[in-house]
Specification:
Radius of gyration: 21 Å
Shape: globular
Structural class: alpha/beta
Number of strands: 24
Distance between the termini: 5 Å
Largest sheet: 4 strands, mixed
Number of helices: 14
Strand order of the largest sheet: 22-23-1-24
Bound molecules: uridine-diphosphate-2(N-acetylglucosaminyl) butyric acid
Length: 419
């Protein structure tokens, strides 16, 4: 297993291009199977989760061509397998996204049931209940979700909890269902909207994109198109946070600042100087002091859970006390004990992390536990005095493209040691 070796204490400075959004790319690759002919996708990030999703479609029989220039060609016409094995689902929970599309297009799907994961139990009851409301017969047999349907029909569905992949699964099922489906309390994350825009570009009829009520009129078929995926707002936020904790000055290009509004406001509250253009963001933290910021993670457009760990590192180095409340996942403070090994002063009270800022963090050996926790450990390592070694970095490769190469381009000193 690879490790990352970080020499801390260097302020980041320079410019970086932001990659395509992982959480938009995954459902969009999967949704390509709904088309009647070839789909061409641009701005595809080089990530382990993307490779897993490509593998997933290839296992089903799709023809896939990966281009050097971050594009992907998917030919769904040869799909003839409707099963997703445990090996794929256990490495990537988002594999469950094939359920809706397979069921609505081919009338059957057999997908291994995802277990719990490092950040919480993460059930899929809303996905399954929604598909049942659309006429699917769904059973759980020997650890697999076994689903069948003649043709799905429209339904009026209220989702009790705002769920990103749940909304996406039902959206993909509804576009080829007979009649009208209304999804209430739908997730409004930019990645959900990107999927909906992609589906509409293929010929789907989705209204209300960006709102919490989606109205979908089923169509007979969707056609292949060329589509460019949105930039990754969480990758962008992570690099901005890295500049903030190292008192650096960084400019990000190829970003969508509108997707980062709540996060940018918190950066300003934390004392950063921001300059924002149509598709770029500059954050300057030179000669400025980090201030503590209180945060409550909530569904979009509120502050994202995927930026919680990174802001915890900022708070760990800020002057004063801050409260960070995690309301999306029940176990998403796994980075806290690791940050404490580096000298952070953090107390956990239920779903609230209370930080008392310290003057500095000290490099140590730490362990990555999930994707965003890993990102926070890199940030801590960059800010810390001395050397930090991060073990189990495979988590970071799931969601950050060429992470050490990108950080090093803006002055970081990170080395990957292959084992
Ligand atoms: N939930 C249910 N029942 C369901 C579905 C969800 O109770 O059927 C609950 C979950 O347990 C959780 C809450 O609803 O408490 C929200 O979870 P959601 O379903 O929105 O999460 P997800 O779709 O599994 C996506 C992202 C996550 C991101 C969350 C929240 C993808 C592939 N994953 O997960 O991304 O944290 O939304 O925004 O889109 C990451 O990139 O590091 C990551 C974990």
């Amino acid at each position: 297993m690879d490790t990352l070796l970080i020499q801390g204490g260097v302020p980041l400075s320079g410019e970086l291009d932001i990659s395509g959004a992982k959480n938009a790319v995954l459902p969009i690759i999967v949704a390509s199977l709904l088309a009647e002919d070839v789909v061409m996708l641009n701005n595809i990030p080089h990530l382990r989760d993307v490779t897993t999703t490509i593998e997933l479609l290839a296992t089903m029989g799709a023809g896939i061509t990966v281009d050097e220039k971050l594009s992907l060609e998917i030919d769904p016409t040869t799909i003839n397998q409707f099963e997703v094995p445990y090996e794929l689902v256990k490495t990537m929970r988002a594999s469950v996204l094939v359920l809706g599309p397979l069921l609505t297009k081919y009338g059957e799907a057999r997908v291994s049931l995802p277990g719990g994961c490092a950040i919480g139990s993460r059930p899929v009851n809303i996905h399954l209940d929604g598909l049942r409301a659309m006429g699917a017969d769904i059973r759980v047999e020997k650890g697999f979700i076994v689903a069948r349907a003649e043709r799905l029909h429209g339904a009026h569905i209220y989702m009790d909890v705002v769920t990103v992949t749940g909304t996406e699964n039902l959206l993909m099922a509804a576009v080829l269902a007979q009649g009208v489906t209304v999804l209430e309390n739908a997730a409004r994350e930019p990645e959900v909207n990107d999927l909906a825009n992609f589906l509409n570009a293929m010929g789907a009829q989705i209204e209300g994109i960006g709102s919490s009520t989606l109205r979908i009129t089923g169509v007979e078929k969707l056609t292949g198109i060329t589509y460019t995926v949105i930039p990754d707002r969480i990758e962008a936020g992570t690099y901005l946070a890295a500049a903030a904790v190292t008192q650096g000055d960084i400019t990000l290009r190829k970003v969508e600042p509108l997707h980062l509004e709540s996060v940018l406001l918190k950066f300003e509250e934390a004392g950063a100087l921001l300059d924002v253009g149509r598709d770029w963001i500059r954050l300057d933290m030179r000669n400025r002091t980090l201030k503590p910021v209180n945060i409550v993670t909530m569904p979009y457009p509120a502050f994202p859970t995927d930026m919680q760990a990174q802001f915890l590192v900022m708070n760990a180095l800020a002057k004063g006390v801050a409260h960070v409340k995690e309301t999306i996942f029940e176990n998403r403070f796994m980075h806290v004990p690791e940050l404490m090994r580096m000298g952070a002063n953090i107390a956990i009270d239920g779903n609230i992390a209370i930080t008392q800022g310290v003057d500095k963090l000290i490099g140590a050996q730490v362990m990555a536990t999930d994707l965003r926790a890993s990102a926070s450990l890199i940030l801590a390592g960059l800010a810390a005095e001395g050397e930090t070694t991060i073990n189990r970095v495979y988590h970071i490769d799931r969601g950050y493209e060429r992470v050490e190469e990108k950080f090093n381009r803006v002055g970081a000193l990170i080395q990957r040691l292959a084992s």
